[in-house]
Design goal:
By secondary structure, the protein is an alpha/beta fold. It is 39% helix and 18% strand. Helix 1 links the parallel strand 1 (2-8) and strand 2 (33-40).
Amino acid sequence: MIHICIPCRDEDRTIGVLLWKIRDVMATLGRDFHVFVLDDASRDGTRALLEKYKRVMPLTVLTERRPIGFGRATEKLLRAAAGRTRYPKRDAIITMQGDFTEHPEHLHALIKTFEGGADIVAGESATVAADVPRRIRFVRWLGGLAIGRMVSGNSGGDWLAGLRAYRVVVVKKAIREAGDRRLVRTDGWAANAELMKVLTPYARRVAHVPLTRRYDLRPRRTRVRILPTLRQILRLRKAAPLEAERHGAA
């Protein structure tokens, strides 16, 4: 089973098409799947649109009355999906954004690589689309320099990328180790980096697949706040290393 987790807020322009593309891709792959979407207090038509899609595809919608942010939304989705799986050593949780920055077509490579034995598969930018705003390029470059190697043995890749596949047992071990503590304390792109820091110690192998991101379908200046993002990444890098041992996932 493939569990696909999508946090979204005010995405009525893209979330419907995204879900339909996911449905098409998964049908082509012939894999059982379930989509989890967290509606983070949307003020547009996102919630009504999601209710319609619940009738035509395997979809669970979590809702928040007040915004909780990307980091907390992603963690809630991970916990919800991990709690639904029957085969944690075999099933995958995939995270992606609701604004079409990451195209569902990349799910092919992500799932194939996961099924090849990787416990975490992360997307990394192979090419830079011509429409990527300069400020986005700038913050990704600075963020990459700030991150460095936060987990011993990390094989590199784009830690700011949100499109990833995690073996469910990896997520469940991290949740169990965390106890009452939150897995993700940062927000935005920094939350993606924090997830890699938290989950990598429980994975035997981390792999990467190339992808191209696009920013023309849902242009927003608030997508990335440069200084807050960099501050969170730097705090994350300075945080004490994880005490968890490196566990096998099989």
